[in-house]
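Tokens for PEP-CTERM sorting domain-containing protein. Go.
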Amino acid sequence: MSIYKKTLTYTSGALLFCATALQAQLSITNGDFEAQVVPQPPGYDENVADWFQSQTSSFYEYVYNQPSVGDNNRLMFENTADHPNYVYQSMGTVTAGEVASGSIQFFADAIKRSDRDFGAIEFELFSGTFATPGNGNPLTGLSSLGTYTVPANTFTTDPGFAEAPIITSAFDISSLSAGTEVWLQLTAPIAGGGVNPGIDNISFSVIPEPSTYAFLGGLLAFALVMIRRRK
């Protein structure tokens, strides 16, 4: 095999390896809250499918279905002074490629009812093993990877059910070891009557560090030079 073919073969292999490494193994289940434990007509469902929640009953957090809005189900937090609200789920374990990428960023739609204040919703990412996930069991003994708060001033208008797309800051995962479990928790930290924040359509992206882009760009440029020399 000529030096040109070897170079192109190795470069193509490296590019394919990097592209594969950047694919996410982490995932979010029922991020649009369309799956319900007990599907029902428009109204409330206290059960949040695929998420562990702060309470097993009462409207501390619930799925609200309103087809007239067009997007059906969304997660709403009904705050009370003595029950801070949260839901959480495991996103799975990170791969070496995800760790090398550097960070995770979340996307979602924040929801505000016209007759209630939004308050705030916090995204918090944790890493580690949690042996007792379940309704009413808060995450304990894990390492926090950071918090992002969706502020009340996200909304400048006040229609029936306002939606505002939000993008969190990046959560650094570069210090994790491959195989470490990652947990996402959503919390409504502001308590009190008339506070009713909501969230919907949660997704995320693994964000490569600038050095990763530079490395891939360098490999591609090198391959193009070899191809032109071959011609």
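The mean pLDDT is 76.
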